[in-house]
Specification:
With 275 residues, this protein is α+β, with helices and mostly antiparallel strands. It has ten helices and seven strands.
Amino acid sequence: MIPLVLKMMNSFGKFRLTRMAVILCASLTTLIITNGYTLAQELPQEMFNRGNYYMEQEDFTGALEVYEDIEQKDFSSGPLFLNMGISYVYLDSLGLAKYYFLKASHYSPTKEKADEGIELIGERLNQRRGEMSRLSWISFSEWLQFELNKQSVIIYGLILLYFGFLFVALPWFYSSYQRTLKYSGYISACLGMMLILLAIIIDSQTEEYSRAVMVEVQSPMRPHPTDDNEVVSMVYEGYTFTLDQSRSQEYEGWKYIRLSNGLNGWIEENVIREL
């Protein structure tokens, strides 16, 4: 009986040893593969430096291939978008250049250079096909929707609201200038509430709209999202316009846009880039 038990224990021990060896080998293999994959992956900064080297060698196509790989990794920065815009300028793709300059302008370190690039592209495009007219109310509407800092407006509104309550409360402690303080408090509180409500309303409407840039040489804008109807207007490279997100969801492959001259219509999705 005892030899049988010893034999079973010996077999069990071998089984445990074999299983542990398999697990250990599998763990080592996984570790080697994982480390090899990690080492094979290039860091965004290293890729960016390599793209910059291509730019220095005036290989702008090669530089853009690297920069686009970085962008596809969901990595974004002002210098990245600025260099992409510069590369597209040298490749004479001004629509894409403007698109990336506009993205770079949202970063404070590259805003000045990006604005200079946008101005340069505007001058070049205007020489080619003339400047599109802009309606003042549309320009003001776009400024409210896309350029106004809503958070700052809310902060100013809260400050006015605070001073309004303060002015209303002061007459409880000081008998002089009661009416002046009270009315000043009411006015300040009302202005603060108006600013806060205005920022909230604008922010809620902004979610339904976005800006886009025309990146192809030209494309027709049509009254309906099909190719077999009349042309409302021609949209040229570098044009920026407002994109209606809610209406654009109705038809796949088409976007409903509003130009700065007041014209509205449908344009194919593949010729524009949304900001």
